[in-house]
Specification:
The chain is globular. The longest helix has 14 residues. 22% of the residues lie in helices and 24% in strands. It starts with 8 loop residues before the first helix and ends with a strand. With 358 residues, the chain is an alpha/beta fold. The protein has a single domain, classed as Ribonuclease Z/Hydroxyacylglutathione hydrolase-like (Metallo-beta-lactamase, Chain A), CATH 3.60.15. A nine-stranded mixed β-sheet has the order 3-4-20-2-5-6-7-8-11. Strands 1, 12, 13, 16, 17, 18 and 19 form a seven-stranded mixed β-sheet that branches.
Amino acid sequence: MEFDRRSFLGMGLAALVATSQPATAATLSVPAIDSLDLTVVVDNFSNVFAPDFERADITVTGPVPAPDYHKAYAGEWGYSLLARSAVGGSTPHTTLIDFGYTPKALLNNLDLLGVSPGSIDAMVLSHGHYDHFGGLDGLLATREVRRRTPLFVGGEEAFCERLRGTRPGASSFGAIDRPAIARAGIDLIVSGDPHVVAGHRFTTGEIPYVTSERPRVPTAMLPGRQCDRALLEPAKRDLNFVVDDAIHELGTAFNLSGHGLVVIGACSHRGIINTIRRAQAVSGVSRVHAIVGGFHLVPPQTKAQALETVAMMQALNPDYIIPGHCSGDVFLNAASAAMPDKVVRSVVGARYRFGRRA
């Protein structure tokens, strides 16, 4: 399948209107940081020979080989991202965003990266899908995560048991082990409001639909199963089966001084452009430096949706796009053709350094 810039001209004007409106007044006092390192801990794609490269405002370092060549980074369907941010010459703050599908992959990759669970200052769970929280139990079982480490979750819905499908009777897709979080002494912050996380980054809170994006979520939840009905939306709390709308999903973002926002949509079930627009509205910062994560453009999303997202990203004109996990080949191929100098492949173990050099 071939793509070029002219493939998107028909969508360009609508995309520009949808994405170029100025951000509304900030709802959160968002700090500015001077440098940001993002390391892919878990993703679908692993390549021990991924090349290094450097530009004026980004340095990409491929996975550091394990001392023992018998060991390798584990790639799996899931996502986890480690963010280290700093202001001035201060000690960097470390946030783990999502936990991948299995404890084995998460712990293996953290070990190869030389990251101790005890070095994590804060954690964010983007949403209640197993491929994003499955590794959490294993991380907590190490007993190395510091007690009182904050874990941000976007709403009670994240804890409801889920089904792998949108019809009653579909197979289970698991549920977060809330008692394990309590036993580990983690400070659980469950809120649909935006929050500053560990003084350096912020969550978007609930993400409204403000563009044409309306992704279909391929799961359902069971109200009352592992979650408190009374804390769910009134329209859902008395039901026993609900097709997911991912209203509890969070984006995470950083305000990089002199560059703009780095927005992370770990799976973007509310739409990656909607996620960016929410980060702009929350922070009052319009400029977008980088868009990172899974953009949820695999089936049941369509080719047309993927191409429309490419057009909207062109209108936003970020400096870099780092698609991974559920972004899909149609999006990746089209975005690479339309914006070849902006798209950088997400690779397990790779490090992406933004901002001031150490």
